[in-house]
Amino acid sequence: MSLDNSEIEHLASLVRITLSEVDIEMLKDQLPRILEQFELLNEVDTSDILPTGHAVNVESVMRQDELRTPLSTAEVLSNVPNVQGEHIRVKTVLEE
Amino acid sequence: MGELWKLDLAEMHDLLKQKSISSVELTQSYLDRINSVESEIKSYITVCGDFALKQAEEADRRIARGDCQKLTGIPVQIKDLIATKGIKTTCGSKMLENYVPVFNATCVERLYEAGAVLLGKGNMDEFGMGSSCENSAFYATNNPWNNDRIPGGSSGGAAAAVAAGEAAYAIGSDTGGSIRQPAAMCGIVGLKPTYGLVSRYGLVAYASSFDQIGPMTRNVQDCAAILEVISGHDEFDSTSLQRPATIYSDSLNANIKGVRLGIPEEYFLDGMESGVRERVNSAIETLESMGAMIMPVSLPTTKYALACYYILAPSECSANLARYDGVKYGYSYQDTDDMWEAMGVTRSQGFGMEVKRRIMLGTYALSSGYYDAFYLKAQKVRTLIRNDFDSVFQQVDALIAPTSPVVAFEHGDRTDDPVRMYSIDVCTLPVNIAGLPAVSVPCGLSDGLPVGLQIIGPHFSESNILNIAYAYERNTEWSASIPVMD
């Protein structure tokens, strides 16, 4: 199993992580070795087996739609890196 | 009063209740202890001394009013991925280096209501991803038994703090062994409860279907006392289960006559260290001598657990960590006008290499061409692993196994080889895959380093596995062992 530079770069673009050349070389070596370990699962017959998402049965829980005191605007914005007034400032999303 | 940090919770509680000591004195003694040993252990990311002393004053007022619960006035360290209002919660990551939560995790709320005193936040592998505490963005934690060695991970700071007497107890989290493995390596008790028993609200998510909060303590009684406080349904966590409140301490009677204990052969691997094997086998003989029925059992799917976990947990992580975009909170690269560049550089500079590796792996496993072959396949294997446990628990009440196949290793020994690092988790991962409870209890030393005995039970069998651990602990002297530190 192997991954080439373009596959690593494609993955990096999907996860929005800018990788250095050094990172790419390291991951090109390590990811295939990890993925090879996963191939062990191919020997398991799972043809009639249902997948498990949670180990303990989990059901959706609903509560009454009642008014509660929310966090204040100041609290919500307290960790925002770039605030303008009472708004979160972001980079340009739509170009003209 | 001398070395208060050597006392267990029940002893501290008695002294507080009798007003022989105050919570302020007890808290100050821990702050002094931190001051004297923290430079060599590095178990804390944040120490909040002033906050702790204020909480201690409040605890003393409660005690004066006659309200002294089991944890009132007793100082705790909390792993730094559990939200504490007004106190930095970094997850061991540069991404959250300056993040100050505006709310408390439910377990923190419950500890505060019980009168706990927060000393500070524990070092850890970044976002819980690691087995040695070396993936902290800030510094590695040292094992109090030997400073050249790792404390285990990811809750390495918590385990080291309890072992070194830098906290009366700690709260950790366990996604693939992150409470039990460091507990084993530092010679303390660590419990990973049944999935859903302790609310995950305020626990920063790594792999949501595996993560569980639990206590890390000097002995089993302490562990039971803390579980009583932090467990229970929480409407803020939809996976938290409705269960009757249980006084776990009441089930500790040290009687294990006739208890059926299975020894799963698959957990005694070829690669396990001989010292670990000897200590665990000796512990099994001790349990048998106390009246337990020992029987060999087989869990044939155990060998698939490692691959299953390292597909599913990174897949969940890749989704959970998508939230770190540098916009709403956390590290943010600002030196560009381009949104995508800002996000890419933010995540590149904010995350460490192990986190990036797992996000990449998880995204690969979830991508369209590989979803069936990796993610779905692993979810089906998860069913088989769970079925294996279900059938073996028809025959036995609990399973006895090593917690880790190796004792604490030297810093840097495995950092260059992720496959070798992941392989240490082989005895703990299956428990998270099946959502089971398991406790690690000290069972002796190998070459001067602690070995952990793992007791695994069916869902919601905390009372039973804690009692087995308690019975073992009462018949040995290991839990009283304290590392020699100069």
Q: What would your notes on this structure say?
A:
The complex is a heterodimer of chains A (96) and B (486). Chain A is mainly α and 96 residues long. Chain A contains 3 helices and 2 strands. Chain A has a two-stranded antiparallel ribbon with strand order 1-2. In chain A, strand 1 and strand 2 (87-88) form a beta hairpin. The mean pLDDT of chain A is 91. Chain B has 486 residues and is of the alpha/beta class. Chain B is built from 15 helices and 11 strands. In chain B, helix 5 (156-163) runs parallel beside helix 6, helix 9 crosses helix 11 (353-366) and helix 9 crosses helix 12. The model of chain B has no long low-confidence stretch (mean pLDDT 96). At the A-B interface, helix 1 and helix 2 of A face helix 9, helix 10, helix 11, helix 12 and helix 13 of B.
Please describe the structure with a list of short key phrases separated by commas or semicolons.
heterodimer; A: 96 residues; mainly alpha; two-stranded antiparallel ribbon; 3 helices; 34% helix; flat; B: 486 residues; alpha/beta; 15 helices; 11 strands
Average pLDDT value of chain A?
Answer: 91
What is the oligomer described by this structure?
Answer: heterodimer
Shape of chain B: globular
Relative strand content of chain B: 5-15%
Radius of gyration of chain B: 21 Å
Largest sheet of chain B: 11 strands, mixed
Strands of chain A, total number = 2
Give the low-pLDDT segments of chain A: none
Adjacency order of strands in the biggest sheet of chain B = 1-3-2-4-6-5-10-11-9-7-8
Structural class assignment of chain A? mainly alpha
Sheet of most strands of chain A: 2 strands, antiparallel
| Helix share bin of chain A | 25-40%
Distance between the first and last residues' Cα of chain A:
44 Å
- Which value, in Å, is the CA radius of gyration of chain A? 23 Å
